Structure to design on (362 residues):
């Protein structure tokens, strides 16, 4: 039975794991290792029970060690942890690229401990312990990479399932190939699309004025900081290059069909895309967390937006994104509000309707 957990890196993911585990099993003793200011916040939020002053002190009595740092320090951490571990320990990570981490762990750690690569597919637009949420992993897919020639530890499975996540065993290479297609490629595609529109803006100032709706949704992740993506793209370079090559070939096919005026083939491509998108599970979370939208009509008068946001804040509903779609002087305006999931959007709609607003769920 896992009773003592050490989380190295108590930011969004590490902090959320701590909050979820404490909510599920109060008897767990969770130790955190991070910067002093971050650890103080994690203690105040109840994500950890104790702050460690050193790596040695952090892992001394641990049954489970969770590496929840950015990717770059993980390899170094594994090397530093290796001589400090005790027989029977379980070690896991939360990195979004698996092969280099898992291979280094299996090569570095002694055979008397078990390393399981992990990737919880949940996140937030905000980072850090301030954004940690015990419900972050509800209905999220949580990939685990079983040790070679061995199964997953039952106690680790039980602990992760207690967060509300759904476990998906997967080999490291397969995970990285899938991630390159449905996470890393979309990020680069959004960067390219938003960047191209920015170049066109220099030629025609109306370009970004008309770039709302679908364009905004397609490029939402283009705002992600490069500091977060540098390590991911470097660590998963091979699969990402393969994905870019395949995507470029698809774009060339579409371009060639347009040149040839082959509308039947274009229609077939649209049908294939529709079938693929329909096959995506409508519920749950994946590599890219979707947002649920709600459209709210508000009168053009002072304090209207304050009333809207206060109504939701008083009921502890967090607005992930807000956008004014249209407004003219003296007329109603329509806001698009984005929430974590559909149930939250539906609850927000009910509350706002009671407050006198007109709402529409797409």
């Amino acid at each position: 039975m896992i009773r003592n957990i050490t989380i190295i890196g108590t930011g969004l993911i590490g902090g959320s794991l701590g909050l979820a585990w404490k909510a599920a099993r109060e008897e767990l003793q969770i130790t955190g290792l991070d910067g002093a200011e971050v650890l103080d916040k994690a203690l105040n939020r109840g994500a950890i029970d104790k702050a460690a002053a050193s790596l040695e002190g952090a892992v001394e009595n641990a049954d489970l060690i969770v590496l929840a740092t950015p990717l770059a320090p993980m390899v170094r951490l594994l090397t530093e942890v290796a001589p400090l571990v005790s027989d029977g320990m379980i070690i896991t990570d939360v990195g979004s690229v698996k092969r280099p981490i898992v291979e280094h762990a299996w090569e570095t750690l002694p055979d008397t401990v078990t390393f399981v690569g992990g990737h919880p597919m949940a996140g937030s637009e905000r980072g850090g312990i301030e954004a940690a949420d015990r419900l972050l992993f509800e209905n999220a897919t949580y990939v685990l990479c079983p040790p070679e020639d061995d199964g997953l530890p039952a106690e680790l499975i039980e602990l992760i399932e207690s967060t509300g996540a759904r476990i998906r065993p997967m080999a490291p290479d397969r995970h990285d190939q899938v991630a390159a297609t449905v996470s890393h490629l979309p990020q680069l595609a959004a960067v390219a699309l938003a960047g191209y529109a920015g170049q066109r803006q220099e030629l025609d100032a109306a370009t970004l004025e008309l770039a709302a709706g679908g364009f905004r949704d397609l490029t939402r992740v283009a705002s992600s900081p490069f500091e977060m993506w540098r390590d991911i793209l470097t660590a998963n370079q091979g699969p990402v290059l393969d994905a870019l090559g395949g995507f470029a070939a698809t774009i060339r096919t579409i371009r060639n069909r347009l040149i040839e005026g082959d509308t039947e083939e274009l229609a077939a491509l649209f049908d294939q895309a529709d079938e693929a998108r329909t096959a995506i599970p409508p519920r749950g979370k994946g590599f890219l967390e979707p947002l649920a939208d709600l459209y709210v009509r508000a009168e053009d008068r002072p304090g209207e937006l304050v009333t809207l946001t206060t109504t939701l804040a008083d009921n502890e509903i967090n607005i992930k994104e807000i956008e004014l779609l249209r407004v003219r002087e003296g007329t109603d305006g329509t806001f698009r509000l984005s929430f974590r999931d559909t149930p939250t959007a539906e609850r927000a709609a009910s509350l706002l309707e009671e407050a006198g607003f007109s709402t529409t769920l797409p």
